[in-house]
Amino acid sequence: MILQNIFAESLQNLGSNRLRSALTMLGIIWGTASVVFLLGWGRGFVNVMHTEARTVGDGFIIIWPKRARSEISGRKGARQLYFEMKHVDAVLAQCPSVRYATPVEEWGGLVMKSGNNLKPGNLVGVNPDAASILNLKIDRGRFLQPADVDHGRRVIVLAADLAQGLFPDESKALEGRVKVRGVTFEVIGVLERKGDTLVDWGGRDDDKAYIPVTAFHKDISGWRYVGMIFVHPRDQAQSKACTEEVRAVLAKELDFSPDDKEALEIIDISGILTSLDTMALIAAIFVTTIGVITLLVGGVGVMNIMLISVTERTREIGIRKAIGAKRSHILLQFLGEALTITIASGLIGIVLGVALSLAFAAAPRPKLLAAPEISTITIIGSFTVMTLTGLLAGVLPARRAAGLEPAESLRYE
Question: Where in this chain does the record put each MacB-like periplasmic core domain (predicted)?
Fold first, then answer.
């Protein structure tokens, strides 16, 4: 009942100064709407970064050979190293930390032909593990199988855009024929479209075609060496230890010192993904901080208005105390008015923030410009911050009002 009276009296006092109350509420409304929008946008941005960064692959390690500087086992230093298929097998057999490994040979900008249709693309020679390492999802048909690699079969798996360019009638893509550098391959699968991604290697994934690495060596390059090895760690958090284990095995196989850091070029995509996660977290903290600061600025406006109200109502406070009002009654009255302003403004601000977020999500925008994601946590978090702001804004004016002496207040002009 007391709270109901305080609320009713707060509304009456606010209604007596409508323009001033409305201008004060504007700061809280804008601050709350900003918090809701920025928290939602920060959440959406983090999710976009996670999704885009992992589209190319859920963290893997790229290794290619360079020049060994070390002299070991009677082998001279300063010699060029080359990977062969047996080195991929050694990595898979001797590295418990490795889940998948594939040789990778790539030839970019090759013109591929099917009937009268021509389209440039990248031809990639791999083994079946590439599908798991690079997150390649089959839309139709199948991916490469171990038998395709063992027998060097002339089969090919097309990415989405490449398949669409070579086979405008999509129903004819499977079991169609694609000619590359005069060699005809049978189409056994079409991949799901990935779209533009934040991270890629060697060009757009949707413009690539995959064939057995043995067919690549035999029919395309005439080269028996392997350009790169892609490794997928069994535990993403242990990618650094996995890297060192693979380096030690390759050092043993190729006769160079494991301490020779120039013998291999290694790029840990898992490390890049971790860095992107850190950047996304920093961005979320940054936008949240801006929103909270904006709300606190609105709270300062409420506190100023409440201090002015205390001054204007000094005689009223004196009269109430003279007829028996306790210090706690005055304290609760002014705290109630501050909370009434902030909660009413905050609720309007939440509605406005959600409306802005929905409008922004519905508007056309670049893929990497994330749509805000409004969640229950965002709403509860905004309401909590808003309530705390109201309490902080009301404490000082309420304490000042409650501390006034009745006799001095009655003499105030």
Answer: 21-248
Q: Which residue has the higher pLDDT, 411 or 41?
A: 41
pTM check: above 0.90: no
Is beta strand 183-191 parallel, antiparallel or unpaired with respect to 155-158?
Answer: parallel
pLDDT digits (tens, 9 = 90+) for 23-68: 778 877 887 888 788 778 877 877 777 676 666 666 789 999 998 8
Whole-number pLDDT of residue 71 = 66
Does the pLDDT value for residue 254 go beyond 80? yes
Summarize pLDDT for 74-111 with one digit per residue, the tens.
Answer: 666 678 899 999 999 999 999 999 999 999 999 988 99
Residue position matching structure tokens 């390759």? 250
Both tokens of 48, joined, read 């976009």
All structural domains of the chain with their residue ranges:
1-53+274-411, 106-224
Where b means 16+ CB within 10 Å and e means fewer, 38-50 reads: bbbbbbbbbebbe
Q: Which residue has the tokens 């996304």?
A: 280
CB 390 within 8 Å of CB 337: no
Among 95, 79, 75, which residue's Cα sits nearest to residue 87? 95
What burial class does residue 307 get, using C-beta atoms within 10 Å of its C-beta: 0-12 exposed, 13-18 middle, 19+ buried? middle
pLDDT in the model for residue 74 = 62
Give me the half-sphere count of Cα atoms (radius 13 Å) on the Cβ side of residue 374: 19
Sign of CA dihedral 217, 223, 224, 228: negative
**Tokens read off for 179:** 């000619």
Handedness of CA 360, 364, 365, 369 (dihedral sign): positive
Residue (of 168, 185, 109) closest to 176 by Cα position? 185
Structural contact between residues 145 and 233, judged by C-beta atoms closer than 8 angstroms: no
Residue type, 42: G
What is the number of residues in the chain? 413
Structural contact between residues 402 and 331, judged by C-beta atoms closer than 8 angstroms:
yes
What pLDDT does residue 142 have? 95
Amino acid, res. 377: I
Which of 180, 171, 210 is CA-nearest to residue 114? 180
Give whole-number Cα distances, 154 to 70, 125, 212, 318, in Å.
40, 11, 8, 97
Give the three-state DSSP class for 372.
coil
- Chain centroid to Cα 231, Å, comes to 23
